[in-house]
Write a structure and sequence with these properties.
The chain has 372 residues and is α+β, with helices and mostly antiparallel strands. It is built from 9 helices and 9 strands.
Length: 372
């Protein structure tokens, strides 16, 4: 089934940000994620239509990592099916059908047909346990927690299933999974060993007076308990992840552009009809000789250079957001925590803090304001 770009619609999902970190910071990063996801999706459609299914799969994987949209998931599953990854395809088709019950009939039919085709090359395990919330691993890979919603698609052959429950010894079984068949794997935990929930404590949980903390709250305790810390810390992690991911994307696009440019120069050096254009055959107007039409290759080179520059910009934004978030987190920690003796003297004062990034042609930094 041919993938249609018109089926793709990405909806920007805004990360809620509270406290003193500006919403615009998160919105900028989220817009960058959405734009890049759309770009990767369209690249995957183009590669799929060219029959480059493995490359299309990589592009759809990148798009889905950025935006988990149903259309991306369906196209990822299709590319996996055509690139001989039946287990991954079956799992993603199943996920699409399970999580999107209200999709159009055409898309549901495509997913059902793809799932049926993938399962001609897979086996399935029906994993059951008498205890809910148990982690299920197949060949060392976490699949989910009991109860599982569906059979688990696996590669045919000998498979190792392990269940891990907190406070209980893990259980493991090795089963033979024939192609096209479903094997039921049952696990039974000793429920009598489970301690009663909500048993009364025999001792007071209040620490002795001598062990109570008298200084500033520990940094990680504050990071876990303060919503403002969640926002600044989240901005740091989001920015750093964005920067690293798009730096990798930019490097990959740069390598692709270099490869294409080398091939164009090699062909041009042997094309006498170019004359003085041999050193720069992609300059406008792009030439067409009796040997070669340089237009498609030059357009592909330009596309890769645009992708490289765009990803580099997004990576820079990500690292800036990460830096601002990290600095903000440190500053907020000292502003919002203080030793108990000083807190007592200022408990009646209302404190507020605002931290804003300032970026201009001659200054980059932070503006910090508030009452203390």
């Amino acid at each position: 089934m041919r993938i249609r770009a018109s089926a793709f619609l990405l909806v920007a999902l805004s990360m809620p940000v509270h406290g003193s970190i500006p919403n615009a910071m998160a919105q900028t990063a989220d817009t960058a994620f959405t734009d890049s996801a759309r770009q990767r999706f369209q690249e995957g459609v183009r590669l799929f239509d060219q029959g480059k299914f493995e490359e299309a799969r990589a592009a759809f994987l990148q798009a889905y990592a950025l935006k988990q949209h149903p259309a991306v998931l369906l196209n990822l599953a299709q590319s996996e099916l055509h690139s001989d990854h039946p287990v991954e395809a079956a799992r993603h088709f199943s996920e699409f059908l399970r999580d999107n019950p209200n999709v159009e009939a055409e898309e549901r039919a495509a997913a059902e047909q793809g799932l049926a085709a993938a399962r001609t090359k897979t086996a399935r395990l029906d994993i059951k346990a008498n205890l809910d919330g148990v982690d299920v691993f197949v060949d060392g890979t976490l699949i989910g927690r009991t109860p599982l919603f569906d059979d688990v698609d696996v590669a045919p052959g000998s498979r190792t299933v392990e269940l891990r429950a907190g406070g209980k010894p893990p259980q493991s079984k090795t089963v033979d999974a024939p192609i096209g068949q479903v094997r039921t794997v049952m696990f039974s935990f000793d429920l009598s060993a489970t301690p009663p929930v909500g048993a009364p404590e025999t001792e007071s949980s209040e620490p002795p007076e001598s062990t109570k903390q008298e200084g500033r709250m520990p940094f990680f305790d504050w990071l876990i308990s303060d919503q403002v810390a969640w926002a600044s810390g989240g901005a740091t992690v989001l920015g750093l992840g964005t920067g690293i991911l798009f730096a990798i994307f930019s490097h990959s696009a740069s390598n692709d552009a270099d490869s294409i440019a080398s091939q164009i120069k090699l062909v041009a050096s042997r094309d006498d009809e170019l004359g003085d254009r041999q050193k720069n055959p992609c300059a406008d107007p792009v030439p067409i000789t009796s040997r070669t039409n340089y237009g498609p290759a030059c357009r592909q080179l330009k596309d890769n250079l645009d992708i490289r520059d765009r990803d580099k910009t997004v990576a820079t934004i990500g690292f800036v957001v990460a830096g601002v978030g990290a600095i903000s987190t440190g500053v907020l920690y000292y502003l919002r925590t203080e030793p108990e003796d000083s807190a007592a003297s200022t408990s009646s004062a209302v404190r507020s803090t605002t931290i804003l990034p300032l970026i201009s042609s001659d200054y980059q930094g932070l503006s910090i304001g508030g009452t203390f």
